[in-house]
Amino acid sequence: MLLSELLAICRREMAAVPDAAPGEAEILVSAVTGIPRGRLFLSMKEEIGDASARLFPLVARRRAGEPLQYVLGAWDFCGREFRLSRDTLIPRPETEGLAELALAALRRSTVGRPLALDVGTGSGAIAVTLAAEVPTALVVATDVSYGALRMTRENAALHGVASRVLPVRCDLYSSLKCMERFAVVVSNPPYVSEGEWPLLPLPVRGYEPPGALLAGPDGLSVLRPLVSGAEGLLSPGGELWCEIGAAQGEAVSSLPCGSLRPLGVFPDLAGRDRYAGWTKPEMER
User: Fold this and answer.
1) CB environment 235-269: b (16+ within 10 A), e (fewer)
2) What does the pLDDT look like over 41-90, one tens digit per residue?
3) In sequence order, which residues have a C-beta less than 8 Å from that of residue 229 and are 6 or more positions away?
4) Percentage of the chain with pLDDT > 70?
5) How far apart are CA 200 and CA 269, in angstroms?
6) Which residue, 14, 109, 185, 203, shows the most beta carbons closer than 10 Å to its own?
7) CA–CA distance, 115 with 224 (Å, rounded to integer)
8) What is the spatial distance between Cα 227 and Cα 176, in angstroms, rounded to a whole number?
9) Calpha distance 223→276 (Å, rounded)
10) What distance lies between CA 249 and its chain's CA centroid?
11) Nearest CA to 155 among 240, 88, 213, 62?
12) pLDDT of 161-209, one tens digit each?
């Protein structure tokens, strides 16, 4: 079978997937053949054998509604590929902005080997990115899910930072009792309210872990204690950065934060409120 024939088959099959995005056929063909997507159109006459046997099960999963990222078992985040499972959220472009804010804060630290804490790490995308981009940093990555932490370990090893990313299984309240002081605390916490849950796309509600999304009646049941408790986690001058819901900017700005000084609420690339930051004054009270 030629690559061009396989791509034609995949395009035909994917036409029956209602929520398929443009380019998914190329992504799937690249995954089953190992030919980078950027080289597909230069390799149309290449003989690839009977790759359709590997392709059809993946297409069937997409036709059943499973998100492409879970079908592939991996997705890109900040220029690196991260392995995924149904225990982890799908990395999204909005969260890359959160990683960039945390990374800038980590680079501002004057400590020789700065410590960072990623609360609710999931696949470890943020934790691994921080460790990979700041070679002196040590990152504690917490999550309540065994499956998520397994992915964190795999991704840390995949990107060569396993010695500087420490996965720890614990809930939020145990994370807040950590005796270390961190230069950066970062979290993409659950922030979907109970009222918003039915409005989410079906693939999100049907496949992504609800515990990583839902956060009580107002969507702030996880963020609220994290902000109020971060004072005891941060070193003087340290920063807390969190992702928030697009309609939560005003409510988040009013959250009790102890001695922390709010840095503000910032938009994502679409102009929606998406990130909130706080810092601990240099002089502890």
Assistant:
1) bebbbbbbbbbeebbebbeebebeebebbebbebe
2) 888 888 888 888 889 999 999 999 999 999 999 999 999 999 999 999 99
3) 176
4) 99
5) 20
6) 185
7) 23
8) 10
9) 10
10) 20
11) 88
12) 999 999 999 999 888 888 789 999 999 999 999 999 999 999 999 999 9
Say whether pTM exceeds 0.85: yes
CA angle 241, 104, 83 (to 5 degrees): 75
pLDDT reading at 27 higher than 80: yes
| CATH T-level topology, domain 75-279 | Rossmann fold (3.40.50)
> Does residue 285 carry a pLDDT above 50?
no
Q: At what angle do helices 93-108 and 125-133 cross, to 10 degrees?
A: 40
146: amino acid identity, one letter: Y
pLDDT at residue number 31: 93
In the chain, where the domains are located = 3-65, 75-279
Determine the Cα–Cα distance for residues 210 and 272; give it in Å rounded to an integer. Answer: 23
Provide the CB-side half-sphere exposure for 93 (13 A, CA): 4
DSSP 179: -
End-to-end CA distance of the chain: 71
Write the CA distances from 178 to 1, 26, 76, 143, integer angstroms.
57, 46, 31, 13
Long-range contacts formed by 140-143: CB under 8 A, 24+ apart: 140/115, 140/116, 140/166, 140/168, 140/178, 140/180, 140/182, 141/165, 141/166, 141/167, 141/168, 142/117, 142/118, 142/167, 142/168, 142/169, 142/170, 142/174, 142/175, 143/167, 143/169
Q: How far apart are CA 166 and CA 3, in angstroms?
A: 42
Contact by Cβ (8 Å): 213, 243: no
Q: DSSP letters along 262-273, please? A: EEEEEE-TTS-E
